[in-house]
Amino acid sequence: MNHVRTPESRFDGLPDYPFAPHYVEIDGLRMHYVDEGPRDAAPVLLLHGEPSWSYLYRHMIPPLVEAGHRVIAPDLIGFGKSDKPTSKSAYTFAGHVAWMRDFIEQLELEDITLFCQDWGSLIGLRVAAENEQRFARIALGNGGLPTGDQEMPKAFKAWQTFAAYSPYFPIGKIIDKGTVADLSEQVIAAYDAPFPSSKYKHGARAFPALVPTTPDNPATEANRAAWKVFEGWEKPFLTCFSNRDPITRGGERVWQKHVPGADGQAHVTIENAGHFLQEEKGPELAALLIRFIDEGDSLTEETT
User: Fold this and answer.
1) Which of 32, 118, 176, 202 is catalytic?
2) Overall average pLDDT of the 186-213 stretch
3) Active-site residue identified among 3, 32, 202, 275
4) Catalytic (active site) residue 297
5) Dist. CA 127–CA 302, nearest whole Å
6) Residues 68, 70: Cα–Cα separation, whole Å
7) Which end of the chain is more exposed for a tag (fewer CB within 10 A), N or C?
8) Helix/strand/coil for 196
């Protein structure tokens, strides 16, 4: 598969991103991930979405590690320090699910706590539903698993059109527009770092069109099957959506209603945050995850 690899020099001196790189090879592509904390601890898997990369989690990783967790934050193929296929057609929903499954299998991850947002949720929720024995609990923020049977917000349709046709696709400024607070020029540049030119952006351009918006989408049947799994999912399921995301706001209600494991959880609305809530509320989200894991572990201890 033809691909490009972002020069390592592009990542020199990024603010608040001191993490050592790790890599696995999947289908001839190098996939990067952050792996911090004790290797014998149960993993917390942080999945980013579109068009961000693991830099999004830089404020969540340290407190999770300090709490004793192993924290793994991969860069999806086409993003961050991972290789980037140079054909838009190389990016498919099924392909990303397979890549993430292979990543989890190569690292032999079990007892996973998943936190996922945006496309990290579309991919992560599918992988969890199809490999539920590997997952202990899920926390979902600003994401979902559409089947094409739902009406999508106007804001999302506008985003699809922009990604498909705009000659200008400034990754860092797109992230900035998806937050309530203004990001610094240094942070915007860090989000731009993996994408030196347009040939590095095919994945970022492709993702919006892959979201199922009609029932005949290639991913519809697999997503419906995943929903069937979640309608019987008894493991802990937490929602933590922000109140100022025009695309996903209110989307937590369907999960709270239909997932048995969501019943009785301390679901949270994150105030004054936009779509990229990890960027604006990272330490707060990390604290929520730590509590979510600790409470689940306490319940397990009480029943054993």
Assistant:
1) 118
2) 96
3) 275
4) no
5) 29
6) 7
7) C
8) coil
**pLDDT score, position 202:** 96
For residue range 49-83, list pLDDT tens digits in order: 999 999 999 999 999 999 999 999 999 999 999 99
Instruction: Find how far residue 299's CA is from the centre of its chain.
Output: 27
| 149 is a catalytic site residue | no
Q: Is the peptide bond before 283 cis (omega within 30 degrees of 0)?
A: no
Per-residue pLDDT, 167: 93
pLDDT tens column, 141-182? 999 999 999 888 899 999 999 999 999 999 999 999 999 999
Which among 75, 83, 176, 245 is annotated as catalytic? 245
**CA terminus-to-terminus distance, the chain:** 49
pLDDT of amino acid 298: 47
Domain span holding position 14: 3-303
Say whether 59 is catalytic: no
Number of separate domains in the chain: 1
Q: Which residues pair with 44 in a beta bridge?
A: 71, 113
Q: Dihedrals φ, ψ of 187, to 5°? A: -70, -40
| 193-196 long-range contacts, CB within 8 A, separation 24+ | 193/6, 193/10, 193/11, 193/14, 193/55, 194/6, 194/10, 194/11, 194/53, 194/75, 194/79, 194/80, 194/81, 194/84, 195/6, 195/171, 196/6, 196/7, 196/10
pTM of the model: 0.96
Q: What is the CATH number of the domain that holds 66?
A: 3.40.50.1820
CB atoms within 10 A of CB 59: 17
